[in-house]
Every structure is written in C-alpha cells, then in structure tokens.
Fold this sequence. Notes:
This protein is an alpha/beta fold. Helices cover 38% and strands 25% of the residues. Belongs to the ABC transporter superfamily.
Amino acid sequence: MTGAGLVVRDLSVGYGPVRALRRVSLEVPEGAVVTVLGGNGAGKSTLLRAISRTLAFHGGAVTEGTVTLDDRRLDALPPDRVVAAGVCQVPEGRRVFARMTVADNLRAGALGGTRAGRSAALDRVHELFPVLAERANQRAGLLSGGEQQMLAVARALMATPRVLLLDEPSLGLAPLMARRIADTVREINTQGTSVLLVEQNAALALRLATRAYVLEVGEVTLSGPAAELAASDEVRRRYLGVVDEDAASDADRTTDRTLTRWKG
Ligand SMILES: Nc1ncnc2c1ncn2[C@@H]1O[C@H](COP(=O)(O)OP(=O)(O)OP(=O)(O)O)[C@@H](O)[C@H]1O
Ligand SMILES: [Mg+2]
C-alpha cells in the first residue's frame, strides 16, 4: 500500500553482515514535518541514506522494502534521479565544500535546474539566510558551525525539493543557533516543502513535527502525533531527560495509549 507523499514500507538495510534497519515503515504526508528520534546508532542516518539512495557510498544496501513518492518508486533510482524526483538530503555533520565559496556551494546544489529556477531558488535561500548573501564570496570553511549548517540546508534547497531530509541539523550548535535553525525549518515547511527530520534533540524535533517515530536499534518502537509523544512518559524519560519517579513505575498511563507500539 502506498499513498500521497513519501512512504517507506518495511525497509531493511545492512552494511555487510551488520543489520542496521529492520522492517521500518513510516510516512511523510505532503506538507508535513515528521521526525524520527533515536540515540546514537539507532539507524537514523541509515534511514535517510536509504531514502536518498546514497547507502552504497557507505557500503550499505537495502535488503527489502520500498520507498515511494506519490506512488512512484524511488528505491530503484540512482541518487541524482531521487533529487530530480524531489527528495533532497542534508547529510549529518554539515558537510560543505570548505574550500569553495559560499556562492559556489549553492551553485553545486542547483546543478540540473533551469536558469530561472536556479535564480528563484537562490533568492529564496538568500531570504531565508541573509548571511549567505553577505558571505557569498567567502570560503565556506571560514563560516561558523551554525552558518555552515545553514549553508548545508541552503544547498539542498537549491534543488527545490518537495521533501527535505535533515540529518541532525542541531547537532553541536549552541541553543540559540539551534533555535534559529528550527525556526528556519518551520519557515521552509510553511513555504510548502515537506520535512523528514532525524534528531537526537527530541525537545526541538517534537516542537517542529506533527508526527514522530522512535527508532531503537534499527526498529520503529513507537509512533504517533508529536504532541502525544512529547507527553508520553517513556519519551519524556528517555528522550527529554525528565526524571519522574511516579511515571517510571507506571509505564502504561493514558497518555501512552493512543501511541502505536511495535515491540512486544
Ligand atoms: N558505513 C557503515 N558501515 C558499517 N556499519 C555502519 C555504517 N554506518 C552505520 N553503521 C552501523 O549501522 C547502525 C546505524 O548507524 P546510523 O549511523 O544509521 O545511526 P544513527 O542513528 O544515525 O546514529 P548517530 O546519532 O550516532 O548519527 C549502527 O550500528 C552503525 O554502527
Ligand atoms: Mg546519524
């Protein structure tokens, strides 16, 4: 079964003998912000690489399952065709071309579009991130960490994606900069781009998203509306760092009941 938007169905991934994802299913409806939470090694980056078809660059492969965008299979396409189909990934670790200028980094993200399309995309990016216009001729490696993250997001936007895949955009940023990135993600979404956001920063992600999934050791263990996950004792305890003795001893409170649980 598939539907509108990005749909991942029963996706399993291995890196050689290492099984990194096991039958993961999730949906990013058109226009939504959806988040995947999970700790180190849960499989968040692997999931995004499987969707963007960049797994092979990391020695990984999909062993079962499908990825579709509006019923169109993406899982047999090469990575550049996935971008052309409207799905663009911002990899973790804010990788920019450090020795290239900011302007050239953005140009690299726009390869393939029409001149008018590129120019419109650049205007949008400069409006979202004025600092990138001010620093257009500076080497990207000289930008601050937060500015490099902005550039990484901006470079992906140059391809005018319908779905943006974001891998831990807040990682290593001071709270103020993380909030600015979050505000920008909201703005990008308001302008019509769907977002799949993977994060360890659950507080930030759950504020942005309408729907959330929890990934643990390669499997989805919990999913539901973001507001309900944010209120669930399990998520509060494990991902929001809330210590609540009563809640800890009462794992099945009403807030948890509407969430879908996979393990058992
Ligand atoms: N290139 C690789 N080769 C072999 N194993 C890998 C590779 N990349 C990831 N893995 C393994 O796959 C599993 C999932 O890793 P992944 O990087 O997707 O997790 P993650 O949730 O993104 O973690 P983090 O929050 O630390 O970025 C881990 O067990 C990891 O060791
Ligand atoms: Mg990762």
